[in-house]
Amino acid sequence: MPDNSKFCQVVRQPVSPEGGGLGLANYTLDRYMEAVKALQEALQRNEQALLPRLYLAASYIKLGQQDDAEWEIEQLKMQVPVLTAFR
Predict the structure, then answer these.
(1) Which residues contact 40 (CB under 8 A, 6 or more apart)?
(2) What is the distance between the alpha carbons of residues 39 and 26, in angstroms, rounded to a whole number?
(3) Is the pLDDT of residue 8 over 50?
(4) Is the pLDDT of residue 29 over 90?
(5) 8 Å CB contact between 74 and 87
(6) Can you give the CATH number for the domain in which 37 is found?
(7) Does the pTM exceed 0.85?
(8) How far from the centroid of its chain's Cα atoms is residue 21's Cα?
(9) Where is average pLDDT lowest: 28-32, 57-61, 62-66, 78-82?
(10) 3-state SS of 60-72?
């Protein structure tokens, strides 16, 4: 069974504005374009941040940008191999 401890740590982390909090707030409010911008900025500060990347992929899906979403998901899979089990 794959080790999912890194994934579980991400889910439990508090989210600061620097860590994509503004992007998550915009996503929650269905402001997907604003979410994309804020989440991209969060990833510029820390490209290894998983939660902003996850919500960025979800925002792309909501905007119909499937190719961009798939790229972000592939990046997540490389960072957290346990995610390859999800399809």
Answers:
(1) 56
(2) 10
(3) no
(4) yes
(5) no
(6) 1.25.40.10
(7) no
(8) 11
(9) 78-82
(10) HHHCCCHHHHHHH
- Report which residue type is found at 79: Q
- Please report, as a single letter, which amino acid is at residue 52: P
SS (H, E, C) 3-51: CCHHHHHHHHCCCCCCCCHHHHHHHHCCCHHHHHHHHHHHHHHCCCCHH
74 within domain boundaries? yes
Look up the domain containing 58 and give its range. 17-85
Render pLDDT for 63-79 as a digit per residue (tens, 0 to 9): 999 999 999 999 999 98
* pLDDT above 60 for 4: no
